Task: inverse folding
DNA sequence: CGCGCTCTTGACTAGGGTCAAGTGCAGTGG
DNA sequence: CCACTGCACTTGACCCTAGTCAAGAGCGCG
C-alpha cells in the first residue's frame, strides 16, 4: 500500500482542479506539523478558542461526552480530513477529537480565512465541496442508524471507508488498513461490540468481507452492496465531476 | 403567538450584532419570495444546479429517497432556516426538500457569495455560526438515535424544537405550534408511529408534555430534561454569546 | 355517505441488548 | 522462563425494547 505524500491535496484534486494560487493559499493556511500519540485528546469538548487541524498522517476519532458518562463515537477522521473547523464559529468545541493511532496534524491559520478564500476561489470551491461532502456523510449515517439493520449498517459504513481510503490512496484494491477495534466500530455504528461481532461473523461466513488483524478485505463488493441495499448513487457524490 | 417579521434576522441577531453593511448584504442576497403549498417539492433529490432558499414563513422537511422506496425524514426546517445551501457545492441535491405547511421562501443569489462575505465579515461570521449550529444539531440527532431510547429521543427532539422556535419568536412560553404529524415526527426520530404514540402517551400520563392538535405544550421542562438525560450544555450552544 | 387520513390501543414477535464465561495475545515484572 | 494483568475478540443464553400486524375511532372532505 502506497501512502500519498499529501492526502488533502490528493482528495481536493480528485474533484477540483486547483491553480497555482489555490495551492499556494492552501499551503499558506497550514502551520507546522504537530504529533499526537494514540489515545491523546487533540481538541476536547468544551474547549474555547480551540485550534483546527488538518490530518497529515494517522486516524482520529470524534466522540461526544454525554451526561450519563458514555462517549459515543461520532465520526472517524482520515488523513486529509479537517478537525473541528465547523465549531471554530461556536463558542466552544462541541465534541472531543482524539488520536486513534499516532497522528500527525497541521494547525490551520484561520485568521485571514475569508480573505484567503476570496482571493483563491478555486480553493474556496474545493473546501465548500469538502464541507458539503462531510455533511452528506453524517446524513447518510443518520439514515443508516435510523433505517437500516445492523448488517446493512455495517456494510454501508465499511463501503464508505472503502471509498474514503481510495480517495486518498490508502487502499490496496482488495481493501484497506483499518485501525478501528470492533469496540470502536460498534460504537460508531450505534450497536454493541457483541452484536457487531456476530454481524462480522455472518459477513465472513457468507464470503462477503473480512475484518481481521486491522485489515478490511472485500470478497464480493457487488453481492455485499446488493444484499445490504447499498445505494450506489450516494458514493457517486464523492467522485462525480460537478457541473 | 406573535410571528416575527423576519425570522432569519432575528435568529442571527440573537447571537451576533450585524452592522448596516451586513444587513444590506443579507438583504441583497435574497431574491423575490415564492410560495409552495403543503406537500410540494421545493428541491428534489438529484436535481442539478438546484437553487437554495431561506424560509420566510411555514415549515419544511428534508427527506432522503432510499433504494428500497422508503423516504426517511432527515430534518425539519423552520422560518429563518436555509434550504440546500450545502449541496450547492455538490453535483446535485442529496435530498428532497418539501413543504410541510404552506411555505414562503426567498431564493438566495449565490453567484457573488464569496465577495459578499468578504465585504460583510459580520454576516460571514453569523452564517458560519448558522452552519456550525446546523451540524451540531445533526450530530446531536445522530447521538440521540444511536444512544438514547425512544422516550429520551422524543423529549430531546421536542426540547430542541422548543429552543429553535424560541429563537425565532414562534413560541408562547408554554410551548409552540407544531405542524408535524405523529407519522412524520416518528420518522424523523427513527421509530414507528405506533411506538411514538405509546411514548407520547407515557409522557402525557407522567404530566411532562402534551402533543395535541398541532401544539406541543411543556408541563414540566425540568423533570422532562432530568428524566430523559437531556444535556443542558447542548442547548447553550444556541444561545450563549461566543468569545 | 363513504373514502382516506391521523390517531389510538392491543397482541404478538424479533432484532439486538445484557449478562456471563472463556480464549488468545501483548506487555510487565518476578 | 513463567505468572499475572489487561484488552480485544468470541460465543452462548436470556430478555426487553420497539417493530409488525390488526382493528377500530374520530374527523375532514368530495
Result:
Amino acid at each position: 500500500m502506497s501512502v500519498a505524500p499529501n492526502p488533502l491535496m490528493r482528495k481536493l484534486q480528485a474533484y477540483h482542479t486547483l491553480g497555482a494560487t489555490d495551492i499556494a493559499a492552501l499551503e499558506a493556511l497550514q502551520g507546522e506539523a504537530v504529533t499526537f500519540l494514540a489515545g491523546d485528546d487533540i481538541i476536547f469538548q468544551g474547549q474555547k478558542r480551540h485550534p483546527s487541524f488538518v490530518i497529515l498522517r494517522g486516524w482520529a476519532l470524534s466522540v461526544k461526552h454525554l451526561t450519563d458518562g458514555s462517549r459515543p463515537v461520532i465520526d472517524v477522521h482520515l488523513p486529509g480530513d479537517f478537525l473541528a473547523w465547523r465549531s471554530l464559529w461556536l463558542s466552544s468545541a462541541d465534541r472531543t477529537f482524539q488520536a486513534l493511532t499516532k497522528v500527525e496534524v497541521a494547525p490551520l491559520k484561520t485568521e485571514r480565512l475569508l480573505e484567503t478564500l476570496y482571493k483563491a476561489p478555486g480553493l474556496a470551491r474545493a473546501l465548500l465541496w469538502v464541507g458539503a461532502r462531510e455533511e452528506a456523510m453524517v446524513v447518510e449515517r443518520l439514515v443508516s442508524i435510523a433505517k437500516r439493520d445492523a448488517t446493512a449498517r455495517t456494510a454501508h459504513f465499511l463501503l464508505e471507508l472503502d471509498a474514503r481510503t481510495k480517495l486518498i490512496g490508502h487502499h490496496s484494491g482488495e481493501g484497506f488498513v483499518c485501525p478501528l477495534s470492533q469496540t470502536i466500530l460498534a460504537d460508531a455504528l450505534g450497536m454493541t461490540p457483541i452484536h457487531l461481532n456476530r454481524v462480522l461473523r455472518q459477513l465472513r461466513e457468507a464470503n462477503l468481507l473480512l475484518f481481521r488483524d486491522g485489515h478490511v478485505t472485500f470478497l464480493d463488493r457487488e453481492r455485499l452492496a446488493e444484499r445490504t441495499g447499498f445505494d450506489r448513487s450516494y458514493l457517486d457524490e464523492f467522485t462525480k465531476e460537478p457541473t
About this structure: Chain B touches chain A through 53 residues (CB under 8 Å). Residues 181-183, 193-194, 197-198, 201 of chain B lie near DNA strand C (CB under 10 Å from a C1'). DSSP finds nine helices and eleven strands in chain B.
